[in-house]
Write a structure and sequence with these properties.
33% helix; 23% strand; 9-stranded mixed β-sheet
Length: 244
């Protein structure tokens, strides 16, 4: 199974293989996350795109807004696929963005603002595969925290499979998933990262805290220590390496 990557290139290569495996297994709504605030989404997208080389003009790439789409068209002049923006138009205008010959769709960094349009586009796309690269779909200030937000998560967001996920938890640990593997918690020890837990579902923040406190995947007890492990700076070097 996949190990925690040491470079950004290795992480992107892992993510491409994870998406290939998911597509081969019939997964049609796929999410890929590199959750580092230092990273720019365009360089990530450029290294991710070779995954779709075989589709050529049958790939459709979407950006969140018209400005980002225009920049991509300027920088990607020789690509065989079309670039669109998700936009905020009516459903009728969204319908024109999806063509019968489109076979697979890449959405680059959509946000919670675009969730209504994104959901409508996915309804039009139907069973054709979509890949969301570094989406930010859940912002309680936009999507909300009430009934409507819960329904959006149940109806749409919950249907998306997180096939690659890489996020630092703190300065010494990381949460990682590479399809078809399980969710993993990695902890720095002696300048190396070691896997200390595997879980079938994405752990909550409290579950991660408990795993890190104990340093092993055991259940809580009344004797749980109150103090977390000491914080190292090594993951900062890891983040910098990923950003280079």
């Amino acid at each position: 199974m996949a190990e925690l990557p040491k470079t950004l290139e290795e992480a992107i290569a892992q993510s491409r293989e994870a998406v290939k495996s998911a597509l081969a297994d019939g997964v049609t709504r796929i999410q890929v996350d590199f959750l580092f605030p230092e990273l720019k989404f365009m360089p990530i997208a450029e290294q991710f795109l070779p995954l779709f080389a075989e589709y050529e003009s049958r790939l459709k790439v979407f950006f969140a807004d018209a400005g980002a789409a225009a920049l991509a068209r300027r920088d990607w002049q020789d690509v065989p696929f079309k670039v669109e923006d998700i936009g905020t138009g009516r459903a009728t205008s969204l319908q024109t963005k999806i063509q019968p010959e489109d076979e697979i769709f890449l959405f680059i960094a959509p946000t919670s603002v675009e969730v209504p349009q994104l959901e409508k586009l996915c309804e039009i796309i139907d069973t054709r595969p979509i890949v969301l690269l570094n989406p930010r779909l859940e912002d309680s200030g936009v999507v909300g925290i009430g009934y409507a937000a819960r329904e959006t998560r149940r109806r749409f967001i919950s249907t998306i499979e997180s096939c690659y996920y890489l996020r630092p938890v703190d300065d010494e640990s990381a949460l990682f998933r590479c399809y078809p593997g399980q969710w993993e918690v990695w902890l720095e020890s002696n300048n190396e990262y070691q896997k200390i837990a595997e879980l079938p579902k994405r752990p909550s923040g409290d579950e991660i805290d408990l795993i890190l406190i104990k340093g092993q995947p055991t259940t809580t007890s009344e004797g749980t220590p109150a103090k977390k492990p000491s914080v190292f700076k090594s993951l900062q070097r890891f983040i910098k390496a990923l950003s280079n």
